[in-house]
Amino acid sequence: MTIPKTSPTPSPSQETASAAGPAQTGSGRFARVPGFGRPTARFVYWWAVALLVANVGIVATGGAVRLTGSGLGCPTWPRCTDDSFVPHQALGVHGVIEFGNRMLTWVLTIVAIATWMAVLRYVRSARRDKWLVTLLALGIPFQGVIGGITVLTKLNPWVVSLHFVLSMVLVSGATVLVFRMRPNAPPPAPAEPGTRVGRSLAWLQYLATWAAVYLGTVVTGSGPHAGDTEAPRNGLAPDQATQLHADAVFVLIGLAIAVTVFTRALRLPQQRTAYTFLGVIALQGILGVVQYNTGLPIALVIAHMTVSAVLLIVATWMILQFGTRTVTDDEPAAAV
């Protein structure tokens, strides 16, 4: 009897190398750049984390600019003054603070470009991941343009709020990238009872988080921290704007409790994230009450803004955990 000869089955690494092509197997202009010649899963993941951290950091530093009254420390854009790209002595410390924040934007830009290169060169990057990291990278210069409009409009509060909202959009998008780039991501779990209800609750929590965040910018636009003594206010009564923001937070707290109880009762794997969100919203509530009753000290307001970004990260993570397509026992595992 003749046994037919069969070619050896290639290993997964061989298949990956074959599919990657020369641009992603270490050849080309990036072959000698450490890490970028042939990006590993962990390398790409940590660049995604760096992009997320940088976006949160720019939220905090941007808040410091406004809270120190340095929003017009550089009175024009893209130059700091009509005659110079850098501040001069007459602008004082406010010019240094505003110019420093502009320089940090360049750090964020470098991190975004590095992350973009890593994801595009990573063999296992899906098309959606490449589109996402490209949009995140393009969001940085767009954010710079909004920042320039903010300066040119003398810190119009509605433009300032748009500037902050775009930063939070980038934070949420970077969270999605981190989630997708996890090197040891577990496979999709079988469908659990109540998964669809949990997904709906998670989306409601996410939307309520955005409502609370945006109304927080409205409160800021009516309050004392305008970014400059000559900056206009939005004309709303601060106490009424604060009450509206507080009402949105109360709704969010109720949803957070509902999600926590729901995931706990059904013992869903998302319950750890639900507890985390509940803890962060409790911390945020404490910061909000204390800063309101102590005259809005700068340090507490910056902390409040930073925790808002963390809150959105956790809300986004919850959506992603519920959003991964679940499978049944007779269906192959796949994730959206």
Structure description:
Helix 5 (157-180) packs across helix 9 and helix 8 runs antiparallel to helix 9 (298-323). The chain is mainly alpha-helical and 336 residues long. The chain has helices spanning 12-20, 41-67, 92-121, 127-152, 157-180, 195-222, 238-265, 271-293, 298-323. It has 9 helices and no strands.
Element layout with pairings:
Elements: H1 12-20, H2 41-67, H3 92-121, H4 127-152, H5 157-180, H6 195-222, H7 238-265, H8 271-293, H9 298-323
Helix pairs in contact: 2-3, 2-5, 2-9, 3-4, 4-5, 5-6, 5-9, 6-7, 6-9, 7-8, 8-9
Task: Tally the beta strands.
Answer: 0
User: What amount of the residues lies in strands?
Assistant: under 5%
What quaternary form is this? single chain
| Poorly predicted runs of 5 or more residues | 1-26, 325-336
The secondary-structure class comes to mainly alpha
Largest sheet: none
In helices, the fraction of residues equals 55-70%
List keywords for this structure.
mainly alpha, flat, disordered C terminus
Give a brief rundown of this model.
By secondary structure, the protein is mostly helical.
